Amino acid sequence: MHYYKNILIAVDGSQEAEWAFNKAVDIAHRNSAKLTIANIVDSRTFSSYEGYAAKFTDKTEGSFGEDLLDGYKKIAQDAGLNDVETRLDNGSPKTYIPKVLAKEINADLIISGSSGLNAVERMIVGSVSEAIVRYAPCDTLVIRSEQIPEDFEPTVATKELHDKYNK
């Protein structure tokens, strides 16, 4: 039987990404794998960068991405994962995740949600998950958002994070 050793999960703060994150934690736990949780801010996309710009410059309280990753790391560790790493980087998620980050961490599985926060860009130029599947050097798993149960509740940490940054 094949076991994964290095799992990469891409998150952006969306409900779909959180659903995929929960599945990634489960898969990492079953495989005793290292889990790398990544948030890649696409500074080339104005709508994405505009939302993050002020948050990246305010280091007194951290940034949305840092807080998001810290919350997910704590959840993964509380679920019993011992080897959890986070990565916050700037670049195009479509190329950075499969072509740079996956190779840097020697990922043997990349997990992502089927859609994320930027629906307009997805309609115009294609989704991040599509690019990951196309260019990844390893197995990929795209979690379909249609599988999210109606009673799915985001974690308390994620709710607090959205409340903090969406005032």
From TrEMBL:
Q: Which InterPro entries match?
A: Rossmann-like_a/b/a_fold (IPR014729), Universal_stress_UspA (IPR006015), UspA (IPR006016)
**First and last residue of the signal peptide:** none
The cross-references to Pfam families, in alphabetical order and at most eight, read: Usp
Its protein name is Universal stress protein
Domain (UspA): give its ranges: 4-144
Q: State the family named in the UniProt similarity comment for this chain.
A: Belongs to the universal stress protein A family.
